[in-house]
Amino acid sequence: LLGELTLEEKVALMTGRDMWSVNPVDRLGIPALKLTDGPNGARGTGLLGTGTPALCLPCGSALGATWNPSLVEELGGVLAEETRARGCHVLLAPTVNIHRSPLGGRNFECYSEDPYLTGRIAVGFIRGVQGGGIGTTIKHFVANDSEFERNTIDSVVPERALREIYLRPFEMAVEEAEPWGLMAAYNRVNGSFACEHRDLLTAVLFDEWGFDGVVVSDWFGTRSTAASASAGLTLEMPGRGRFFGPSLVAAVEHGEVEEAVLDGSVRRLLRLMDRTGAFEDPMDRPEERLDMPKHRALARRASAEGMVLLSNDGLLPLDPAALTSLAVIGPNAASAMIMGGGSAALKPEHDTTPLEALESRLGSVAVRYEPGAVTERTARPVPTRLLGDGFRVEYFDGDDWSGEPILVDGFSDGRLLRTGDVPGTTEPGRFTARATATLTPESTGVHTITMVQVGRARVLVDGAPVIDGISDPPPPGEAFFGLGSAEMSAEVHLAAGHPVRITVEYSSEGAFMFRGVQVGLLPPERDDLIDRAVVAAEACDAVVLVVGTNDDWETEG
Protein backbone atom coordinates (compact mmCIF):
# COMPACT_ATOMS: atom_id res chain seq x y z
CA LEU A 1 0.00 0.00 0.00
CA LEU A 2 2.75 2.44 0.90
CA GLY A 3 4.16 2.48 -2.63
CA GLU A 4 0.74 3.26 -4.11
CA LEU A 5 0.07 6.34 -1.98
CA THR A 6 0.54 9.84 -3.33
CA LEU A 7 2.24 12.51 -1.23
CA GLU A 8 -1.13 14.08 -0.48
CA GLU A 9 -2.57 10.74 0.62
CA LYS A 10 0.36 10.04 2.92
CA VAL A 11 -0.13 13.40 4.58
CA ALA A 12 -3.89 12.82 4.83
CA LEU A 13 -3.23 9.63 6.81
CA MET A 14 -0.99 11.61 9.17
CA THR A 15 -3.69 14.23 9.74
CA GLY A 16 -6.89 13.97 11.73
CA ARG A 17 -10.17 14.10 9.83
CA ASP A 18 -12.22 15.38 12.75
CA MET A 19 -12.17 15.17 16.53
CA TRP A 20 -11.86 11.38 16.77
CA SER A 21 -10.92 9.89 13.41
CA VAL A 22 -8.15 9.86 10.81
CA ASN A 23 -8.59 10.50 7.09
CA PRO A 24 -9.23 7.36 5.03
CA VAL A 25 -7.91 6.69 1.54
CA ASP A 26 -10.97 5.23 -0.11
CA ARG A 27 -9.40 4.39 -3.47
CA LEU A 28 -6.96 1.98 -1.77
CA GLY A 29 -9.40 0.61 0.80
CA ILE A 30 -7.59 2.27 3.72
CA PRO A 31 -10.21 2.91 6.44
CA ALA A 32 -10.66 5.83 8.81
CA LEU A 33 -8.92 4.86 12.05
CA LYS A 34 -11.12 5.84 15.03
CA LEU A 35 -9.93 6.77 18.51
CA THR A 36 -11.60 7.43 21.87
CA ASP A 37 -10.76 8.50 25.40
CA GLY A 38 -9.87 7.31 27.89
CA PRO A 39 -8.27 5.87 31.00
CA ASN A 40 -11.37 4.98 33.04
CA GLY A 41 -13.77 4.00 30.27
CA ALA A 42 -14.37 4.09 26.52
CA ARG A 43 -16.42 7.24 26.11
CA GLY A 44 -16.93 7.35 22.36
CA THR A 45 -17.48 10.61 20.51
CA GLY A 46 -18.86 12.55 23.46
CA LEU A 47 -16.86 14.90 25.66
CA LEU A 48 -17.05 16.17 29.22
CA GLY A 49 -19.48 13.58 30.47
CA THR A 50 -21.65 13.44 27.36
CA GLY A 51 -22.11 10.66 24.84
CA THR A 52 -23.08 6.99 24.96
CA PRO A 53 -23.35 5.66 28.54
CA ALA A 54 -20.28 3.56 29.25
CA LEU A 55 -18.78 1.38 31.95
CA CYS A 56 -16.88 3.62 34.38
CA LEU A 57 -13.86 1.94 35.93
CA PRO A 58 -12.14 3.11 39.12
CA CYS A 59 -9.83 6.02 38.39
CA GLY A 60 -6.10 5.52 37.87
CA SER A 61 -5.10 6.25 41.45
CA ALA A 62 -7.55 3.63 42.68
CA LEU A 63 -6.15 1.07 40.24
CA GLY A 64 -2.65 1.86 41.45
CA ALA A 65 -3.81 1.24 45.00
CA THR A 66 -4.86 -2.31 44.09
CA TRP A 67 -1.19 -3.27 43.54
CA ASN A 68 -2.67 -5.89 41.22
CA PRO A 69 -1.49 -5.81 37.57
CA SER A 70 -3.37 -9.05 36.84
CA LEU A 71 -6.65 -7.47 37.87
CA VAL A 72 -5.88 -4.42 35.75
CA GLU A 73 -5.18 -6.72 32.81
CA GLU A 74 -8.68 -8.18 33.24
CA LEU A 75 -10.08 -4.66 33.25
CA GLY A 76 -8.14 -3.95 30.08
CA GLY A 77 -9.92 -6.82 28.37
CA VAL A 78 -13.25 -5.31 29.39
CA LEU A 79 -12.15 -1.93 28.04
CA ALA A 80 -11.34 -3.57 24.71
CA GLU A 81 -14.94 -4.80 24.49
CA GLU A 82 -16.23 -1.38 25.51
CA THR A 83 -14.04 0.39 22.94
CA ARG A 84 -15.24 -1.90 20.17
CA ALA A 85 -18.84 -1.20 21.21
CA ARG A 86 -18.12 2.52 20.75
CA GLY A 87 -16.98 1.71 17.21
CA CYS A 88 -13.33 2.62 17.82
CA HIS A 89 -9.99 0.97 17.12
CA VAL A 90 -7.78 2.79 19.63
CA LEU A 91 -8.19 3.72 23.31
CA LEU A 92 -6.32 6.85 24.40
CA ALA A 93 -4.87 5.32 27.56
CA PRO A 94 -3.20 4.54 29.95
CA THR A 95 -1.99 7.72 31.68
CA VAL A 96 1.37 7.05 33.32
CA ASN A 97 2.49 10.48 34.44
CA ILE A 98 3.79 10.82 37.97
CA HIS A 99 2.11 12.21 41.10
CA ARG A 100 4.67 14.98 41.69
CA SER A 101 2.37 17.12 43.86
CA PRO A 102 -1.08 16.72 45.44
CA LEU A 103 -2.09 19.76 43.38
CA GLY A 104 -1.73 17.96 40.04
CA GLY A 105 -5.06 18.38 38.27
CA ARG A 106 -4.90 14.99 36.55
CA ASN A 107 -3.39 12.94 39.37
CA PHE A 108 -6.62 10.94 39.49
CA GLU A 109 -5.86 9.59 35.99
CA CYS A 110 -2.38 8.44 36.98
CA TYR A 111 -1.42 5.43 39.04
CA SER A 112 1.16 6.54 41.57
CA GLU A 113 4.11 8.67 42.61
CA ASP A 114 6.20 5.52 42.19
CA PRO A 115 7.51 4.92 38.65
CA TYR A 116 7.91 1.17 39.13
CA LEU A 117 4.36 0.63 40.39
CA THR A 118 3.10 2.89 37.61
CA GLY A 119 4.96 0.81 35.04
CA ARG A 120 3.70 -2.51 36.42
CA ILE A 121 0.06 -1.38 36.36
CA ALA A 122 0.49 0.09 32.87
CA VAL A 123 1.91 -3.18 31.54
CA GLY A 124 -1.17 -5.05 32.78
CA PHE A 125 -3.51 -2.43 31.34
CA ILE A 126 -1.89 -2.48 27.89
CA ARG A 127 -1.74 -6.28 27.71
CA GLY A 128 -5.42 -6.50 28.56
CA VAL A 129 -6.63 -3.92 26.05
CA GLN A 130 -4.41 -5.03 23.19
CA GLY A 131 -5.16 -8.66 23.91
CA GLY A 132 -8.69 -7.74 22.86
CA GLY A 133 -7.49 -6.33 19.55
CA ILE A 134 -7.75 -2.66 20.53
CA GLY A 135 -4.76 -0.32 20.37
CA THR A 136 -3.52 1.71 23.34
CA THR A 137 -1.73 5.06 23.39
CA ILE A 138 0.30 5.34 26.56
CA LYS A 139 0.45 9.01 27.60
CA HIS A 140 1.57 11.80 28.08
CA PHE A 141 5.18 11.58 26.89
CA VAL A 142 6.77 13.04 29.01
CA ALA A 143 7.03 15.07 32.26
CA ASN A 144 3.46 16.33 31.80
CA ASP A 145 2.79 16.12 35.54
CA SER A 146 0.99 19.40 36.20
CA GLU A 147 -1.86 21.23 34.52
CA PHE A 148 -0.46 24.66 35.38
CA GLU A 149 0.38 26.41 32.08
CA ARG A 150 0.66 22.97 30.51
CA ASN A 151 0.64 24.30 26.95
CA THR A 152 3.71 26.47 27.43
CA ILE A 153 5.54 25.32 30.54
CA ASP A 154 9.06 23.92 30.24
CA SER A 155 9.63 20.85 32.41
CA VAL A 156 13.34 21.15 33.17
CA VAL A 157 14.45 17.72 34.36
CA PRO A 158 18.00 16.45 34.96
CA GLU A 159 18.94 13.40 32.91
CA ARG A 160 19.00 10.99 35.85
CA ALA A 161 15.59 12.07 37.17
CA LEU A 162 14.17 12.00 33.66
CA ARG A 163 15.36 8.45 33.15
CA GLU A 164 14.66 6.99 36.59
CA ILE A 165 11.32 8.66 37.33
CA TYR A 166 9.49 10.14 34.35
CA LEU A 167 10.60 7.92 31.47
CA ARG A 168 10.72 4.72 33.50
CA PRO A 169 6.99 3.77 33.26
CA PHE A 170 7.03 4.36 29.50
CA GLU A 171 10.19 2.30 29.11
CA MET A 172 8.74 -0.60 31.11
CA ALA A 173 5.56 -0.54 29.05
CA VAL A 174 7.38 -0.42 25.70
CA GLU A 175 9.72 -3.26 26.65
CA GLU A 176 7.18 -5.55 28.32
CA ALA A 177 3.78 -4.77 26.76
CA GLU A 178 4.65 -3.19 23.38
CA PRO A 179 1.93 -0.53 23.18
CA TRP A 180 0.74 0.16 19.64
CA GLY A 181 0.57 3.91 20.25
CA LEU A 182 1.96 6.71 22.39
CA MET A 183 0.71 10.24 22.93
CA ALA A 184 3.16 13.14 22.98
CA ALA A 185 2.46 15.80 25.59
CA TYR A 186 1.69 19.53 25.42
CA ASN A 187 4.62 20.79 27.45
CA ARG A 188 8.24 21.48 26.68
CA VAL A 189 10.89 19.15 28.06
CA ASN A 190 14.25 20.79 28.64
CA GLY A 191 13.48 23.48 26.09
CA SER A 192 11.74 21.59 23.27
CA PHE A 193 8.04 20.88 22.84
CA ALA A 194 7.30 17.19 23.36
CA CYS A 195 5.67 16.79 19.92
CA GLU A 196 8.87 17.94 18.18
CA HIS A 197 11.45 16.55 20.62
CA ARG A 198 13.82 14.59 18.38
CA ASP A 199 15.98 13.37 21.28
CA LEU A 200 12.99 11.84 23.06
CA LEU A 201 10.94 10.61 20.11
CA THR A 202 13.63 9.42 17.72
CA ALA A 203 16.73 8.80 19.84
CA VAL A 204 15.08 7.33 22.94
CA LEU A 205 11.68 6.01 21.88
CA PHE A 206 12.41 4.69 18.38
CA ASP A 207 16.13 3.96 18.34
CA GLU A 208 16.94 3.02 21.95
CA TRP A 209 13.70 1.33 23.00
CA GLY A 210 12.67 -0.01 19.59
CA PHE A 211 9.12 1.37 19.73
CA ASP A 212 7.33 0.50 16.47
CA GLY A 213 3.96 2.12 17.14
CA VAL A 214 2.26 5.40 16.31
CA VAL A 215 3.08 8.70 18.03
CA VAL A 216 -0.03 10.90 18.17
CA SER A 217 -0.10 14.48 19.40
CA ASP A 218 -2.18 15.43 22.37
CA TRP A 219 -5.21 17.25 21.01
CA PHE A 220 -4.06 20.62 19.55
CA GLY A 221 -0.60 19.91 20.98
CA THR A 222 1.35 20.12 17.70
CA ARG A 223 3.41 23.33 17.44
CA SER A 224 5.31 22.98 14.16
CA THR A 225 5.29 21.25 10.79
CA ALA A 226 8.81 20.28 9.75
CA ALA A 227 10.22 19.91 13.26
CA SER A 228 7.36 17.69 14.46
CA ALA A 229 7.27 15.46 11.39
CA SER A 230 11.05 15.05 11.34
CA ALA A 231 11.20 14.32 15.08
CA GLY A 232 8.82 11.37 14.74
CA LEU A 233 5.29 12.69 15.29
CA THR A 234 3.13 10.27 13.30
CA LEU A 235 -0.32 11.79 13.60
CA GLU A 236 -1.61 15.29 14.31
CA MET A 237 -4.94 15.35 16.12
CA PRO A 238 -7.60 16.50 15.92
CA GLY A 239 -8.59 17.39 12.35
CA ARG A 240 -8.41 19.16 10.13
CA GLY A 241 -4.71 19.79 10.39
CA ARG A 242 -3.14 23.01 11.59
CA PHE A 243 0.49 21.99 11.04
CA PHE A 244 0.17 18.81 9.00
CA GLY A 245 -2.32 18.66 6.12
CA PRO A 246 -1.47 21.17 3.35
CA SER A 247 1.39 22.65 5.40
CA LEU A 248 3.15 19.28 5.54
CA VAL A 249 2.68 18.72 1.81
CA ALA A 250 4.30 22.10 1.19
CA ALA A 251 7.15 21.31 3.59
CA VAL A 252 7.98 18.15 1.63
CA GLU A 253 7.75 19.94 -1.71
CA HIS A 254 10.08 22.68 -0.46
CA GLY A 255 12.63 20.20 0.85
CA GLU A 256 12.04 20.94 4.55
CA VAL A 257 10.94 17.36 5.28
CA GLU A 258 12.14 14.27 3.44
CA GLU A 259 9.36 12.12 2.00
CA ALA A 260 11.13 9.11 3.50
CA VAL A 261 10.20 10.51 6.92
CA LEU A 262 6.54 10.41 5.90
CA ASP A 263 6.97 6.85 4.63
CA GLY A 264 8.14 5.79 8.09
CA SER A 265 5.18 7.45 9.76
CA VAL A 266 2.64 6.04 7.31
CA ARG A 267 4.13 2.57 7.74
CA ARG A 268 3.49 2.89 11.49
CA LEU A 269 -0.10 3.96 10.86
CA LEU A 270 -0.76 1.09 8.46
CA ARG A 271 0.76 -1.30 10.99
CA LEU A 272 -1.65 0.03 13.65
CA MET A 273 -4.60 -0.47 11.30
CA ASP A 274 -3.48 -4.02 10.65
CA ARG A 275 -3.01 -4.78 14.35
CA THR A 276 -6.47 -3.49 15.25
CA GLY A 277 -8.19 -5.24 12.35
CA ALA A 278 -9.32 -1.94 10.87
CA PHE A 279 -8.96 -3.21 7.30
CA GLU A 280 -11.39 -6.05 8.04
CA ASP A 281 -13.67 -4.02 10.32
CA PRO A 282 -13.67 -0.24 9.75
CA MET A 283 -16.28 0.00 12.55
CA ASP A 284 -18.37 2.37 10.49
CA ARG A 285 -21.45 1.86 12.64
CA PRO A 286 -23.35 3.59 15.45
CA GLU A 287 -22.03 3.41 18.99
CA GLU A 288 -23.52 0.75 21.24
CA ARG A 289 -24.08 0.56 24.97
CA LEU A 290 -23.05 -2.78 26.49
CA ASP A 291 -24.12 -2.54 30.16
CA MET A 292 -23.00 -6.08 31.02
CA PRO A 293 -23.40 -7.43 34.59
CA LYS A 294 -20.05 -9.26 34.46
CA HIS A 295 -18.30 -6.01 33.56
CA ARG A 296 -19.97 -4.19 36.44
CA ALA A 297 -18.98 -6.98 38.81
CA LEU A 298 -15.33 -6.71 37.78
CA ALA A 299 -15.39 -2.92 38.16
CA ARG A 300 -16.90 -3.34 41.64
CA ARG A 301 -14.19 -5.82 42.58
CA ALA A 302 -11.50 -3.43 41.37
CA SER A 303 -13.05 -0.59 43.35
CA ALA A 304 -13.01 -2.68 46.52
CA GLU A 305 -9.38 -3.74 45.99
CA GLY A 306 -8.37 -0.11 45.54
CA MET A 307 -9.79 1.01 48.88
CA VAL A 308 -7.26 1.57 51.67
CA LEU A 309 -8.18 1.35 55.36
CA LEU A 310 -5.76 3.70 57.12
CA SER A 311 -6.88 3.04 60.68
CA ASN A 312 -9.61 1.20 62.57
CA ASP A 313 -10.06 1.56 66.32
CA GLY A 314 -12.89 -0.93 66.59
CA LEU A 315 -15.39 1.23 64.72
CA LEU A 316 -15.67 -0.91 61.62
CA PRO A 317 -17.52 -2.77 60.37
CA LEU A 318 -20.71 -0.99 61.34
CA ASP A 319 -23.44 -3.32 62.57
CA PRO A 320 -26.79 -2.25 61.05
CA ALA A 321 -28.65 -4.22 63.72
CA ALA A 322 -27.08 -2.06 66.41
CA LEU A 323 -27.90 1.25 64.72
CA THR A 324 -31.06 3.28 65.00
CA SER A 325 -29.64 6.40 63.32
CA LEU A 326 -26.71 7.37 61.11
CA ALA A 327 -25.38 10.82 60.24
CA VAL A 328 -23.95 11.14 56.74
CA ILE A 329 -21.93 14.32 56.31
CA GLY A 330 -20.12 15.96 53.42
CA PRO A 331 -21.13 17.38 50.04
CA ASN A 332 -19.58 14.41 48.24
CA ALA A 333 -21.85 12.04 50.13
CA ALA A 334 -24.72 13.27 47.98
CA SER A 335 -22.73 13.28 44.73
CA ALA A 336 -21.32 10.39 42.73
CA MET A 337 -17.71 11.55 42.55
CA ILE A 338 -16.50 8.56 40.57
CA MET A 339 -14.14 10.35 38.18
CA GLY A 340 -12.29 13.59 37.61
CA GLY A 341 -13.04 16.13 34.93
CA GLY A 342 -11.72 16.77 31.45
CA SER A 343 -11.05 14.21 28.74
CA ALA A 344 -11.26 11.30 31.20
CA ALA A 345 -14.88 12.07 32.06
CA LEU A 346 -17.69 10.03 30.56
CA LYS A 347 -21.39 9.38 30.98
CA PRO A 348 -21.54 6.35 33.31
CA GLU A 349 -24.02 3.57 32.71
CA HIS A 350 -24.85 3.66 36.41
CA ASP A 351 -23.84 5.73 39.39
CA THR A 352 -24.87 5.72 43.02
CA THR A 353 -24.02 8.27 45.67
CA PRO A 354 -22.74 7.13 49.08
CA LEU A 355 -25.90 8.58 50.61
CA GLU A 356 -28.16 6.58 48.29
CA ALA A 357 -26.19 3.40 48.90
CA LEU A 358 -26.32 3.76 52.68
CA GLU A 359 -30.04 4.53 52.68
CA SER A 360 -30.67 1.46 50.54
CA ARG A 361 -28.44 -0.82 52.61
CA LEU A 362 -29.60 0.27 56.06
CA GLY A 363 -33.33 -0.10 55.51
CA SER A 364 -35.14 1.07 58.66
CA VAL A 365 -32.14 2.94 60.13
CA ALA A 366 -32.82 6.69 60.16
CA VAL A 367 -30.21 8.36 57.91
CA ARG A 368 -29.68 12.07 58.47
CA TYR A 369 -27.72 14.00 55.83
CA GLU A 370 -25.94 17.33 56.17
CA PRO A 371 -23.49 18.74 53.59
CA GLY A 372 -21.41 20.56 56.22
CA ALA A 373 -19.63 22.70 53.61
CA VAL A 374 -19.70 24.00 50.06
CA THR A 375 -16.79 22.77 47.93
CA GLU A 376 -17.81 23.77 44.42
CA ARG A 377 -15.35 25.85 42.43
CA THR A 378 -18.19 26.87 40.11
CA ALA A 379 -21.85 25.98 40.13
CA ARG A 380 -22.47 22.41 39.05
CA PRO A 381 -24.97 21.67 36.26
CA VAL A 382 -28.59 21.73 37.39
CA PRO A 383 -29.05 18.13 38.59
CA THR A 384 -31.40 15.67 36.96
CA ARG A 385 -33.48 15.26 40.10
CA LEU A 386 -34.65 18.91 39.85
CA LEU A 387 -35.53 18.71 36.15
CA GLY A 388 -37.99 15.84 35.84
CA ASP A 389 -37.77 14.91 32.17
CA GLY A 390 -34.70 17.08 31.64
CA PHE A 391 -34.12 19.64 28.90
CA ARG A 392 -35.82 19.38 25.53
CA VAL A 393 -33.59 21.03 22.94
CA GLU A 394 -34.77 22.19 19.51
CA TYR A 395 -32.12 23.05 16.90
CA PHE A 396 -32.73 25.52 14.08
CA ASP A 397 -30.94 26.26 10.82
CA GLY A 398 -30.29 29.98 10.96
CA ASP A 399 -29.66 32.76 13.42
CA ASP A 400 -33.09 33.60 14.83
CA TRP A 401 -34.67 30.45 16.33
CA SER A 402 -37.38 30.48 13.67
CA GLY A 403 -39.02 27.85 11.48
CA GLU A 404 -39.33 24.15 12.13
CA PRO A 405 -36.54 22.55 14.17
CA ILE A 406 -34.08 20.45 12.15
CA LEU A 407 -33.31 18.28 15.19
CA VAL A 408 -34.87 17.66 18.60
CA ASP A 409 -32.67 16.25 21.35
CA GLY A 410 -32.72 15.83 25.11
CA PHE A 411 -30.32 16.33 28.02
CA SER A 412 -30.84 15.02 31.53
CA ASP A 413 -29.08 17.86 33.39
CA GLY A 414 -27.84 21.41 32.88
CA ARG A 415 -24.80 20.55 30.75
CA LEU A 416 -26.13 21.20 27.23
CA LEU A 417 -23.05 20.59 25.10
CA ARG A 418 -22.42 19.20 21.63
CA THR A 419 -19.09 18.40 20.03
CA GLY A 420 -20.18 17.72 16.45
CA ASP A 421 -22.18 19.53 13.83
CA VAL A 422 -25.96 19.50 13.83
CA PRO A 423 -27.20 17.62 10.76
CA GLY A 424 -29.26 19.65 8.33
CA THR A 425 -27.63 23.06 8.71
CA THR A 426 -26.95 25.19 5.64
CA GLU A 427 -23.55 26.16 7.02
CA PRO A 428 -21.78 23.42 9.02
CA GLY A 429 -21.49 24.22 12.69
CA ARG A 430 -23.76 27.27 12.51
CA PHE A 431 -27.15 26.96 14.20
CA THR A 432 -29.38 28.22 16.99
CA ALA A 433 -31.08 26.17 19.67
CA ARG A 434 -33.78 26.55 22.28
CA ALA A 435 -33.70 24.36 25.40
CA THR A 436 -36.62 24.17 27.82
CA ALA A 437 -37.12 22.37 31.12
CA THR A 438 -39.23 22.48 34.25
CA LEU A 439 -37.15 23.09 37.37
CA THR A 440 -38.60 22.25 40.78
CA PRO A 441 -36.49 23.71 43.62
CA GLU A 442 -35.88 21.84 46.86
CA SER A 443 -35.51 24.95 49.03
CA THR A 444 -37.03 28.40 49.40
CA GLY A 445 -35.03 31.60 49.09
CA VAL A 446 -32.66 33.44 46.81
CA HIS A 447 -31.02 30.97 44.43
CA THR A 448 -28.15 31.75 42.07
CA ILE A 449 -28.56 30.67 38.46
CA THR A 450 -25.29 30.48 36.51
CA MET A 451 -24.27 29.95 32.91
CA VAL A 452 -21.03 29.23 31.09
CA GLN A 453 -21.32 29.50 27.32
CA VAL A 454 -19.37 28.30 24.30
CA GLY A 455 -20.97 30.53 21.72
CA ARG A 456 -23.68 33.00 22.75
CA ALA A 457 -26.73 32.35 24.95
CA ARG A 458 -29.32 33.76 27.31
CA VAL A 459 -31.32 32.21 30.18
CA LEU A 460 -34.97 32.97 30.91
CA VAL A 461 -37.00 31.99 33.98
CA ASP A 462 -40.75 31.83 33.32
CA GLY A 463 -40.14 33.91 30.19
CA ALA A 464 -38.15 36.68 31.87
CA PRO A 465 -34.47 37.09 30.86
CA VAL A 466 -32.12 36.71 33.83
CA ILE A 467 -28.73 36.13 32.12
CA ASP A 468 -27.87 37.57 28.70
CA GLY A 469 -24.61 36.42 27.16
CA ILE A 470 -25.76 37.45 23.68
CA SER A 471 -26.11 41.20 24.15
CA ASP A 472 -23.41 41.35 26.82
CA PRO A 473 -20.96 38.48 26.25
CA PRO A 474 -18.60 37.76 29.16
CA PRO A 475 -14.81 37.43 28.92
CA PRO A 476 -13.17 34.04 28.32
CA GLY A 477 -12.94 31.64 31.27
CA GLU A 478 -11.27 28.35 32.16
CA ALA A 479 -14.17 25.95 31.59
CA PHE A 480 -14.19 23.36 28.81
CA PHE A 481 -10.41 23.39 28.26
CA GLY A 482 -10.40 27.19 28.21
CA LEU A 483 -12.95 27.40 25.38
CA GLY A 484 -15.85 28.46 27.59
CA SER A 485 -16.74 31.88 28.94
CA ALA A 486 -16.36 33.16 32.45
CA GLU A 487 -19.29 32.13 34.62
CA MET A 488 -22.27 34.50 34.53
CA SER A 489 -24.83 34.56 37.33
CA ALA A 490 -28.14 36.02 38.45
CA GLU A 491 -30.11 35.81 41.70
CA VAL A 492 -33.68 34.52 41.52
CA HIS A 493 -36.13 33.88 44.36
CA LEU A 494 -37.52 30.34 44.14
CA ALA A 495 -39.89 28.42 46.38
CA ALA A 496 -39.50 24.78 47.36
CA GLY A 497 -41.82 22.51 45.38
CA HIS A 498 -43.00 25.29 43.05
CA PRO A 499 -41.86 24.57 39.47
CA VAL A 500 -40.53 27.26 37.14
CA ARG A 501 -39.85 27.14 33.41
CA ILE A 502 -36.20 27.42 32.40
CA THR A 503 -35.43 28.41 28.80
CA VAL A 504 -32.01 28.70 27.20
CA GLU A 505 -31.68 30.39 23.81
CA TYR A 506 -28.35 29.62 22.17
CA SER A 507 -26.40 30.65 19.08
CA SER A 508 -23.27 28.83 17.91
CA GLU A 509 -21.69 32.12 16.82
CA GLY A 510 -18.06 32.25 17.92
CA ALA A 511 -18.00 28.66 19.21
CA PHE A 512 -15.04 26.35 18.64
CA MET A 513 -14.96 22.58 19.21
CA PHE A 514 -17.80 22.68 21.75
CA ARG A 515 -21.19 24.25 21.17
CA GLY A 516 -23.62 24.90 23.98
CA VAL A 517 -23.87 25.97 27.60
CA GLN A 518 -23.75 24.77 31.15
CA VAL A 519 -26.56 26.03 33.35
CA GLY A 520 -25.98 25.74 37.08
CA LEU A 521 -27.98 26.36 40.23
CA LEU A 522 -26.76 27.28 43.69
CA PRO A 523 -29.24 27.02 46.59
CA PRO A 524 -29.67 29.85 49.09
CA GLU A 525 -26.48 30.54 51.03
CA ARG A 526 -26.35 29.33 54.63
CA ASP A 527 -23.85 30.18 57.33
CA ASP A 528 -24.78 27.31 59.65
CA LEU A 529 -23.65 24.30 57.59
CA ILE A 530 -20.96 23.15 60.03
CA ASP A 531 -23.18 23.77 63.06
CA ARG A 532 -25.94 21.65 61.52
CA ALA A 533 -23.45 18.87 60.77
CA VAL A 534 -22.22 18.90 64.37
CA VAL A 535 -25.79 18.67 65.69
CA ALA A 536 -26.52 15.73 63.38
CA ALA A 537 -23.33 13.93 64.41
CA GLU A 538 -24.11 14.34 68.11
CA ALA A 539 -27.68 13.12 67.66
CA CYS A 540 -26.90 9.91 65.77
CA ASP A 541 -25.40 6.56 66.77
CA ALA A 542 -22.63 6.76 64.17
CA VAL A 543 -21.24 9.14 61.56
CA VAL A 544 -20.03 8.55 58.02
CA LEU A 545 -18.02 11.56 56.87
CA VAL A 546 -17.29 11.77 53.14
CA VAL A 547 -14.51 14.20 52.28
CA GLY A 548 -12.69 15.12 49.09
CA THR A 549 -12.65 17.44 46.12
CA ASN A 550 -14.68 17.09 42.94
CA ASP A 551 -14.30 17.05 39.17
CA ASP A 552 -14.37 20.84 39.08
CA TRP A 553 -11.07 20.97 40.97
CA GLU A 554 -9.47 17.73 39.81
CA THR A 555 -9.55 18.20 36.08
CA GLU A 556 -7.39 19.06 33.13
CA GLY A 557 -6.79 22.40 31.50
Report the CATH topology name of the largest domain.
Answer: TIM Barrel
Strand order of the largest sheet: 12-11-14-19-16-17
CATH class of the largest domain: Alpha Beta
The SS-based structural class is: alpha/beta
CATH H-level superfamily title of the largest domain: Glycoside hydrolase, family 3, N-terminal domain
User: What is the 3D shape?
Assistant: globular
**Helix coverage percent:** 25-40%
How many distinct beta strands? Answer: 21
Provide mean pLDDT, rounded: 95
Tally of individual helices: 14
Return Rg in Å. 25 Å
Q: Give the termini separation.
A: 39 Å
Extract low-pLDDT stretches: none
Number of domains: 3
Strand percentage: 15-25%
Report the sheet with the most strands, covering strand number, pairing sense and barrel closure: 6 strands, antiparallel
Question: How does this structure look, described?
Answer:
This protein is of the alpha/beta class and 557 residues long. It folds into three domains: 2-275, Glycoside hydrolase, family 3, N-terminal domain (TIM Barrel, Alpha-Beta Barrel); 309-370 and 528-545, Rossmann fold; 384-522, Sandwich (Jelly Rolls). It has 14 helices and 21 strands. The strands form five sheets. Strands 12-11-14-19-16-17 form a six-stranded antiparallel β-sheet, with no helix packed on it. A five-stranded parallel β-sheet has the order 1-2-3-5-8. Strands 13-20-15-18 form a four-stranded antiparallel β-sheet, with no helix packed on it. Strand 9, helix 12 and strand 10 form a beta-alpha-beta unit. Helix 3 crosses helix 4. It starts with 6 loop residues before the first helix and ends in a 12-residue tail after the last strand. The model has no long low-confidence stretch (mean pLDDT 95).
